[in-house]
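Posted in: Protein Modeling Q&A

I'm a second-year student putting together a small comparison for a lab meeting, and my supervisor asked me to include a predicted structure for PD-(D/E)XK endonuclease-like domain-containing protein. I've never done this before, so apologies if this is the wrong subforum. The sequence is pasted below exactly as I got it from our records. If anyone can share the structure token output, I'd also love a short note on what stands out.
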Amino acid sequence: MRSRWGDLDRFPVRPHPAAIEGQIVHEALDRLTRACGQRGNPPFGSPEFAAALTDADFFPGFARAVAEWGHRLMSHPRPGPAFRLRASGEELANRAVRMFREQYKPDGKAASQAAERAAETPVNVKALLKKKHALSEVKLTHPGLPFLGILDRVQDTGEGVEVVDFKTGKPSDKHHKQLLRYALLWWRTTGDAPARVSAQYLDGVESWSVTLSALEGIEADLVKGLPLLTEALRAYPAAAKPGSGCGFCPVRARCAAGWAVGEEAALVDGRGDAELLVGAKAGEHGFLARTRVGADVAVVYEAAVAKLLPEHVEGQVVRVLDGVWKEKRSQLELKAWTEVFVVREVQ
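Accepted answer (user: helix_wrangler)
Welcome! Here is the predicted structure, written out as tokens:
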């Protein structure tokens, strides 16, 4: 996404320290999972595992990520009071190591053939696989549809082609469908249908055989669904589709249709999203307000946060994102990462 703040991978969400720390850990685990998978999930302490750590830039990556996020927070397009991450790079590395040790199950192989990374420039991937036997990060585009995918690993097992995707989360039916889409890309690019697709998790692997009818079904779904997605992306503003994701949508404060769904979900989860009618002039450390159901709430904050609140909010309806409930939800604290939006039209 392009904006006046530069090119962004996704909509700029107001950063939260816990979320950023979790993202750093997850990205490191994802890199290490892929690196270990490419080397056959070698045992701890083996030369291959050490090579995987190096490939994943595992330990050095934490300090660098903390420093990079410190710089980003100073120029974030959704501003707020400056804050630093609570954990150091070393602490985040220790957290990631504990998580990895709890989940990782080596295959017991001292060594495994590492896959060769496919080049960005167009190549004959079928011939390259025949020569190298295993490829990683294979970027393919469907020849007739606006659909692209990056295959983590493609390998020749001797019994056919296998497409492998590395996952850090729990098994899901969505992973099977994702892998079938990758298999479709390989089939349409090379003319050879993969024999099997596999999801490699930290603690095991799930594999499925591939049939031509399954690939044709996946392709038919894309032919039907892609034009609908394209049309939806052209709409401005996008049409609201309230659902389970509303509670975490970065634009939920500006969506009348989805706000009620998201606010109720936040209440269940204990998150501090709330629509409030401000009943008194905001002071240096707080103001009194009332919820949509008529409950009185004391909204409190530090002086640094007060400077970034909307002006003249008395009598206005505001939507608070990511506050912190206290005192049995009679008090809502606005933190450095909290956002407050004035609602011009309440529906």
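A couple of things worth pointing out for your meeting: The chain has three domains: 2-103, 116-232, 244-343. The chain is about 35% helix and 25% strand.
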